[in-house]
Structure formats: structure tokens, C-alpha cells
Amino acid sequence: MALTRDTKETVAVRGSKEPEFARALLDEVLTLLLNGEPDTSKLILRDLINATVGFEGLSTEIHKPSKTIHRMLSVTGNPTVENFSSILTSIQKHMKVQVKALVISL
């Protein structure tokens, strides 16, 4: 019997039980997206969905089949801005958070 958990399972459990961890994941998703790393952003977003609303719940909320959402957020997926926005809106609603942009100049 293995003593460790799968990373995705660990992230899902922590994200569902620790609101700060879920918020950090959302922050990372948006930071990666805005810094030109959409593929990594989509993969972390999948983990965040699993930790919060779940793909079936998200499917119901945004009126898209869960299989379609999985494909959109795969490495080769290419979600529209409208779909990405719908997903983020649903997650914010579920997490009871509001995203605000902060521009930091270096």
C-alpha cells in the first residue's frame, strides 16, 4: 500500500478544505494566464475546479457538458474568452470571492 497520495487528489482535498489554498490556486491561474502561460493556467484551473465546484456542478452552471469543459482545459484545448470567463465567474461565485486586478510596476 502506498503511503502517499496522488498530487491531484492532495490538491483537491486541500482546496476543498482550505479556502486560503483555493484562493492561492485561483491567484496562480490568473497570474499564469496574464503572464503568457495559458497551458499551465488551464491545468491548474482543472485542479481548482475539482477542489471547488466540480466538473459536474460547473457543467450545470455554465450549460456546457463536463466532457467539453475537460477538453477546453486540456493542454491542447482552446477555450474562448467567453467560456473561460464563465468558468471563472462560476468559481468565484462558488468560492464567494471577487477577483480584482492589481497592476504592479517594477
Top keywords for this entry?
mainly alpha; single chain; 106 residues
Approximate helicity band? 55-70%
Low-confidence stretches: none
Distance between the termini: 49 Å
Query: How many beta strands in the DSSP annotation?
Result: 0
Mean pLDDT score, rounded? 91
H and E string: HHHHHH
Main sheet, how many strands, which sense, barrel? Answer: none
Indicate the proportion of strand residues.
under 5%
Shape: globular
Total DSSP helices: 6
- Report the radius of gyration as a whole number of Å: 14 Å
Content-based structural category: mainly alpha
What would you note in describing this structure?
- The chain has 106 residues and is an all-alpha fold.
- The protein is built from 6 helices and no strands.
- It has helices spanning 7-17, 19-34, 38-51, 55-62, 66-72, 81-95.
- Helix 1 (7-17) packs across helix 3, helix 2 (19-34) runs antiparallel to helix 3 and helix 4 (55-62) crosses helix 5.
- The N and C termini lie far apart (49 Å).
